[in-house]
Structure formats: C-alpha cells, structure tokens
Amino acid sequence: MTLQENQISVIDPISPAIERVKTILFRPFDLGKWFVIGFCAWLAYLGEGGGPNFNFGGQQWNEPQIQESLHHGKEVVVNNLYWILPLVIIGVLLIIALIVLLTWLSSRGRFMFLHCVALNKAEVVVPWHKFRKQGNSLFLFRIVLGLISFAVIMLLIAMLVVIGVLLFAGGGGPNPLAIILMVLMAICLIIPTAIVFALIGKFTRDFVVPIMFLRQGTCMTAWREFWQLLTGNKGKFTIYILFKIVIALAVGIIVMACVCITCCCLGCFLAIPYIGTVLMLPILVFGRSYSLLYLRQYGTSFDVFEPETVTTLAV
After folding, report:
1. Which of 82, 147, 184, 217 is at a distance of 20 to 30 A from 21, taking alpha carbons?
2. What residues make up the domain containing 79?
3. Which of 115-124, 134-143, 170-179 bottoms out in mean pLDDT, i.e. has the lowest?
4. Where does residue 242 rank: exposed (0-12), middle (13-18), buried (19+ CB within 10 A)?
5. φ, ψ dihedrals at 26, nearest 5°
6. DSSP string for residues in 206-251
7. Please, are residues 68 and 126 in contact by the beta-carbon 8 Å criterion?
8. Does residue 56 lie within any of the structural domains?
9. Does some domain include residue 278?
C-alpha cells in the first residue's frame, strides 16, 4: 500500500484516542471494569514505576569522620565476612529472581492490557492463556536485551574508568582538561548507547507488541516486520518519538498539578500499588490507544481494533 505523506500524522490519533478512553471507561462507567482493566495495566507496567527519592541529609560530614567511618565499616565487614558474603550472594540472587519474575509477568500483562484496549473487553483469563506464546517470546527478548544493554553499558563505563586512571596516573592533582575529556567521552558514548536501547524498548512496547498481537508470532518475527516499516519511515517515527516526549511532559505537568491541588493526597493514593494504576487508567488507556491508532495509519494490516469498535481517524 502506497502511503501519502499527509496520511501519517501524530496529531490525528489524539482525538480518537480520547474518544476511546471515553468509550472504554465512561460509556457506561463501570467500576468493576475499571478494576479488571486496571489489573491488566498494572501487570503490563509492573516494575517500571519509579519510587520516591529519600534524602537523609542534614548532617555535614568532614573528611576525618568519613575516613573513620569507612575504616570502621571495613573492619566490620572483614570480621563478619563468613556470614555477610553468603547473605549478599543470596540477596543478589533473590533480586535477580524478582527482576526476572516481574519481567515475565509484565510481558504477559502487556498483551492482556492490549487485548482490553483493542477489543474493549475487561478480561484477564482469556488473554492470559491466548497470548501465552507471545508473552513468553517477549519475555525472552526483553531479558536478552536487558543483558546486552547491561553488558555494553558496563563495558563503556569500565573503558572510561581505565582511561581516567591512565589520564590521572601522572599525579599532580586533577587535570581540568582530562576531566572535560572524560565528561565528553561519557556524553558521546554512554548517553547515545542508553538512548538506543531505550528506543528499542519503546518501539517494542508501542509497535512490535501490537504486531505480535495481530500475527500471533514471535517477537523477532514481529521486529523484522516492524524494521522494514521503521527503515522506510525514519522521519515519521522520529517525529512520533519527539511528540510522545511532549505528551509525557504534558501528562506529568497535569498529574503534578493535581497532586498539588489535592495537597499531595492524590500522590499518596498513586503511590499505592494497583490502586495508583486504576486511578491513572484513563492516561494509560489513552497512551496505549494513541500508539495503536498511530500504527493503524500505515495500513489495515496494522489495525488491531475490531471493525465495530474502531474510531475513524480524521483525514
């Protein structure tokens, strides 16, 4: 299908996405439906939410106190290494197991939430079983991607550390030019690499998952199909990413304003697992609907909506 330049727009899907939020959540309003779809959304975004940042500051530490504390801490660790080391190993293994479990659950949850939004159905069991294969494939892809990104970032950091040691090996105190060089290398190496991996994750969530939903195939098969679409429309998808950043900023400002207006009461509820997701459900449904409606502009083969529930895009 030949696409005209004016057929692909980041603005046109906004109105249909808002209408879809109204249709799914408010026509009619059904609290039970909210909680069911909210559960699917909670699974889909499991492990991705940020926690509060705590600052236990207030006390000023001078250098002798820091050195004394470090020396005392070192003695405590050395004298109790026989039980601290096994405890640390067990703790690390538990954290890894928890990350793997959350990744698996969220991978299955993404198809459950997509099922609810695309078909306007509040179901848990049906999509859990129906998209088992696709969810597991997505899980493996995310695990491998996470390991690769971690290894690459750590390799770059290690390389910068080695270069830094070599630059400062001559002594004579910090060299401003060497510090500037290190900062520039970090900006030119680590940040672009992190952005690339973040984009892979973003495209996977927004477009590869819907293609898997439609084709009932694996993640790599869907990525190959999306890659052809991406390489042929690089400029359009660049505008999409930039516009999604604008939407995220706007949503963040609105949420913060609501938190301030309610004297942080809303923030307390949003911090509660699952309950916060249910309260944020209109925003989450809008975000999922927006990416699906944008993808639909590339042809009917990318349309996940049932004919009777489709909202026509403005042309």
Report:
1. 217
2. 8-46+71-309
3. 170-179
4. exposed
5. -125, -5
6. IIIHHHHHHH---HHHHHHHHHHHHHHTHHHHHHHHHHHHHHHHHH
7. no
8. no
9. yes
Confidence of residue 74 (pLDDT cuts 50, 70, 90): low
The interaxial angle of helices 234-261 and 219-232, nearest 10 deg, is 110
User: What would the two tokens of residue 139 be?
Assistant: 């899980």
| Nearest Cα to Cα of residue 118 among 99, 131, 105 | 131
Residue scoring higher pLDDT (179 or 158)? 158
Query: What's the structural domain count of the chain?
Result: 1
- Which one-letter amino acid corresponds to residue 104? W
Confidence of residue 4 (pLDDT cuts 50, 70, 90): very low
Residue at 315 is within a domain: no
pLDDT, tens digit, for every residue of 264-287? 888 888 888 889 899 999 999 999
- pTM of the predicted model, to two decimals? 0.81
Assigned domain for 163 exists: yes
Per-residue confidence at 73, pLDDT binned at 50, 70, 90? low
Residue positions counted in the chain = 315
pLDDT at 89 over 60: yes
The Cβ of residue 291 has, within 10 Å, a number of other Cβ atoms equal to 23
Whether residue 35 has pLDDT greater than 90? yes
What 3 state SS string does 108-169 have? HHHHHHHHHHHHCCCCCHHHHHHCHHHHHHHHHHHHHHHHHHHHHHHHHHHHHHHHHHHHHC
CB atoms closer than 10 angstroms to residue 240: 23
The amino acid sitting at 306 is: E
State the Cα–Cα distance between residues 205 and 208, nearest whole angstrom. 6
Structure tokens at 267: 């923030």
